[in-house]
Design brief:
The protein has four helices and eight strands; from the N terminus they run ββααββαββββα. It is of the alpha+beta class. It has a single domain, classed as Nuclear Transport Factor 2, Chain: A (Roll). It has a six-stranded mixed sheet. It has a two-stranded antiparallel ribbon with strand order 1-2. It is globular. The chain starts with a strand and ends with a helix.
Length: about 140
């Protein structure tokens, strides 16, 4: 369950402050702060497009594409990988002005808790995705 108090986000099963900050800053439209959570050459992998690489490019992408977005992360789990990085998997919902969709976020964090990558995957039926295409 997501708790929001004073823009703070708590995600069931997750104790990774940088992941919560990602959602807090994104929901607040503070895209410069969201981008600053990424490593210098960090990658954002949005649905339906190529990876966006680097803090400046991520900030610009978010300014162009994420205005009005509301992320509602609900629950997650953390896995430590062989190389020492952590993979954080979050399930939740994204609400946009015209629609809402179930989403899975995959974050990869380095030893200093910087975001090496964030991948957003839509969790929807083919009919739901066809409906989204009309608005794209």
């Amino acid at each position: 369950m997501t708790a929001t108090r004073n823009n703070a986000i708590a995600i069931l099963g997750i104790d990774e402050p940088v992941v919560c900050q990602y959602f807090e800053t994104l929901n607040a439209g503070a895209f410069d702060r969201t981008a600053s959570l990424f490593a210098e050459r960090g990658e954002l992998h949005p649905p339906f497009t190529e990876a966006v690489v680097g803090r400046e490019e991520i900030e610009q992408y978010l300014q162009d594409e994420a205005e009005g977005i509301c992320c509602l992360p609900q629950r997650g789990e953390v896995e430590t990988l062989e190389d020492g990085t952590r993979l954080v998997k979050i399930a939740g919902k994204v609400k946009m002005p015209l629609f809402g969709v179930n989403v899975t976020w995959l974050f990869r964090l380095d030893a200093t808790s910087q975001l090496l990558g964030a991948k957003i995957q839509l969790v929807a039926s083919p009919q739901e995705l066809l409906g989204l295409k009309r608005f794209a």
